[in-house]
Amino acid sequence: MNTLKExxxxxxxxxxxxxxxxxxxPIDFVxxxxxxxxxxxxxxxxxxxxxxxxxxxxxxxxRIPNSIPDLLLRKTVIEKLQRVNQxxxxxxxxxxxxxxxRPIEVQNYFxxxxxxxxxxxxxxKLSGKELEKEVAKYWAKGAKSxxxxxxxxxxxxxxxxxxxxxxxxxxGEHLFMGSIFDDVTEVSNTDFFEKKxxxxxxxxxxxxxxxxxxxxxxxxxxxxxxNNPTEWWHFSYGDQMWAKISGKKSAIYSAVxx
Length: 258
Fold this sequence. Notes:
The mean pLDDT is about 95. The longest helix is centred in the middle third of the chain and has 19 residues, at about 105-120. Helix 3 (about 105-120) crosses helix 4 (about 130-135). This protein has helices spanning about 10-20, 75-90, 105-120, 130-135, 190-195, 205-220, 240-245; strands at about 40, 45-50, 70-75, 95-100, 160-170, 225, 235. The protein contains seven helices and seven strands. It starts with 11 loop residues before the first helix and ends in a 12-residue tail after the last helix. It has one domain: Muramoyl-pentapeptide Carboxypeptidase, domain 2. About 30% of the residues lie in helices and about 10% in strands. The chain is globular and about 50 Å long.
């Protein structure tokens, strides 16, 4: 598996072109998995803690309004993660989950409030369509409420098919990925260190981040997960982004209904 650390991640433009307008991609509402239930991932031996429910969660350092302690995913997605963990077990490693199913209210908080405010502090002139475009790089538009989610265009984390994660050692130490989770700058782009390598010699720290991102990317790809190219930690199976980027005819999952 160490050979995966030597395999380059394709540049972000390759995926961004495929990802464009993904929320208009068709969903197969009659497929056998459409009504598949969600389960708590930790009940299946997968480690993690909901990042948004914590209070020691940089850069926020607060429990996000309407966040939940649960880590919920579709059963098929959990089974795929278990197979990734079986491979990692041989190396004394395991997956660690930050976030799975996300309430619409949490999505709205970041899309409508936190991230636009952050961007305007950095660049007070940013507004209108330009501001919306920057926000959409890292946060999907939500809905007025969970009951009003457009089932033909759900945010990825509302489907139970999207997951934010990393790899850690069994002693709890996370592999170095070059940024914290939810760093909403270019360093979070999955190919950030690939592009840096194409221009200059990398430091030992950058080289470690490069190889660990490759390792995570290709391990997940082996189980048919697709990565969101602006977030090294975000992978999905069955949602519209997955279907659009991977060239499937349609998505499998819409928003979870409880």
